[in-house]
Each structure stands twice: as structure tokens, then as C-alpha cells.
């Protein structure tokens, strides 16, 4: 009987599971361009816009009902149904209720539109993803990267652009034939954040942006202070009985108009800051991108990635110093770069974490803490509502003088501030607890990924979710799990 070497069989099985030494063909495309080029996308956009208009129409109807409720209140005041000493209180209650109603519906619209967008785009995305997978397999491409993802692929040689082939598969214009080179891309990474932080121009731009933000903030604070002063004056005149119901309505409308202008200014301020940031920083970003492209071409590199998308990297494939050299920066890691990588892997960290008992235990502890904090917060809200109702009842019965009403109002405001402060503390406490529980787990996983990468002679490891397509042979998740004892 023939004898088999069991050790040899095991070695063969492990070799078949993962072969990092083999050359790995890479390609890229712009997924966003493909989505925009699909005829189905235009139809989906039209359907989404019709759905959004339908939701907005419902909101406009709600606004009409809100205005009717406000006018009803004013009529009740003029008819003497509501006593003058309760008028201001009832107006504020109605206004708060209406503002909350509007805010809730705006959030609801946003959520519904986003869900509808996902529903409409999902089949389109799946069709493109299937085409990418089929072309990649036909061309023996192990990995396809998406250049439409912000700050992921910083440079890519057009010879490795797979988009024309996918366009041809989908029947889209701009296919241009088979443009994909039959070769292996040499890939590297850079730390663009670190490069930017060393540029003197960035510090100058940051200083100018800070000055611009301060100027806008001061203007907004001045408008808010003026509005607050006008509102306090209005309340004092109401309390002294100097305004009729009609005059109160007109004055309130003026104040609300100013409040609306303040809100518009705040929205415009955000846009102005964003525009200013682009104006100051975009030329610097363009300069850095040009330096990355120049360094890549000089060293015969076909693709450059941002370091932040990597789960593991070897310093020998860090192009940052050569990019810095193009920008006139001194080297920070002399002699570490040794050329591009052709061997890399991918990991599914979500699946790995989901299979770890430590994560399950951490999730349980976080859930216990969340319930405890939510109960404390709800108790505070319940007590506030109870105190608020008690004060309102006293006001309606005429048991509180104007000075006492002011005192009770200040007390309620303080309690409301305590609730807001607690909510912030709760957020911070939960974040601290998550860091304490999960960081050691993440550290273990990262160490396992690094150890497997070194054992398999990989220069880079990508997160699976960051790739448009990856050959199953690139997946080292099973090896990482084994390293973790899972």
C-alpha cells in the first residue's frame, strides 16, 4: 500500500488557500461615472424628485394648518376666551410645539428620501457590480479600485483603467475598446495628511480661514444679541399692557422675520466658510496631487493610495518622502522607500469582529450602560415635564406674580439646561466606554492582520469593503481568525 505524507498534504492545502507570491493584477475605474451614465439613473432621479415633491407638499399643508392654529389662538385672545395673563404663555407653548413638529417632519423627509434613493439605486449598482466582477474575472484581474471614493486612490496610471471594458459590457457609450494593459501594477501609499501638515502654505491658509470664520461668527453673535434685546423689549411691553393683541401679532411677526434672517445667515455662513476653505486649500491640494503624480511616474509606480484606507502597510512602499521632495520638504524617513508593491491582501474586519466573543461581551456591557443612562435621562425629562405642568397650572389660576413667573421660568430653563448637559455627558460617557472596551480588541485584530501580512510577504492589506471587486484568493480573513484563535 502506498504511504502518503500527511504533512505534505497539509502544506498543499494551505498553499491552495492563499498564494501571495503570485503576481496580482490590479485595475481601477470610476464607479460614480458609471452610475451617472446609466439610463436607469435618470429615471430613478426623476422618480426620486417626484417622491420628494410629494413629501414637501405634505409639509406645506402642515404649515397651513400651523398658521391656522396660530390665528385661532389670536382670535381666542381677542374674543377674551384666553385671559391676557395666559396669552404669552400659550403663544410660546404653541410656537415650541409647532417648531418641534416642523423639525421632526424635516428629519422624516430627509430619512425617507435617503431610503428611497437607496431603493432606486440598489438594482443599478448591483448591475454595475456584476459587470465589474465579470470583466475582472475574464481579464484575470485580482482587485478593482474605485477612484470616485474621496481621498482613496490619489494617482492611477490610465493603462490600468478598466472602465471602458465595463462600459462596453453594460452597453454604455465611451467604451473605447480594450484599453487595459496586460501587466501587474506597482502600488504604493502616501500619508497626505502628514505631507499637508508640513507645508507652510497650509498654515497660512488655516490662519486666513480662522480669521474669516471669526468675522462671520462675530457678525452672527451681533445679530443674535440684537434679536434677543428686541424680544426682551417686546415681552416687557406685553407685560406692561402697552400692546393690543393686533400689535402683539405684528411685533411678533417682525421678530420672527428677524429670527428667520438669522437662521438664513447661519446657513449662508456655513456655505461661505466652505467656499472660503475651497478657495484657500484647493490650489494647495492640486499642488500636492501634482507632486504625487510626478513622484509616481519618476519611480514607475502605477497606483498611489491614501494611507488611511489601509489596515496594514510596510514602510518600504511609502512614497511620502519622494512626494515631499517634489514639494521642497526635507525627508522624514531617509532610505525607507524600496519600490512599489505587487503583493497585497484584503480583510473583512466586520466579519472578524462579529465572530469574536470579546466583541459580544463588550456589546452587552455597552447596551447595559445605554439603558442605564437612558433611564436617568428619561427620569430627568419626566421630572421637568411634571414641574412645567405644575407651573402652568399656577399661572392659569393666577397664583404667580410676574416676578414669581420670571423666577419659575428661570428655574425651568436651568433644569432644561441640565437635561441638555446630561445628554452631552451621556454621549461622552458612552464614547469613553466604547474606547475602553473596543480599543484593546481592535488592537488585537490589527496586530493579527500585521502578523499574517508579514508571514505572507504582503506589503499592503486593504479592507474588503473599500474594494469594488477582489478575488477570493486575496482574502486573508481566515488566516487572521486563526491567528486570533477563532
Automatic annotation (TrEMBL):
Signal sequence annotation: 1-23
A Pfam short name: OmpH
Coiled coil: 88-115
Keyword Heme in record: no
GO cellular component: cytosol
Record keywords: Coiled coil, Signal
Protein name: Outer membrane protein
Species, as recorded: Mariniradius saccharolyticus AK6
Lineage start: Bacteria, Pseudomonadati, Bacteroidota, Cytophagia, Cytophagales
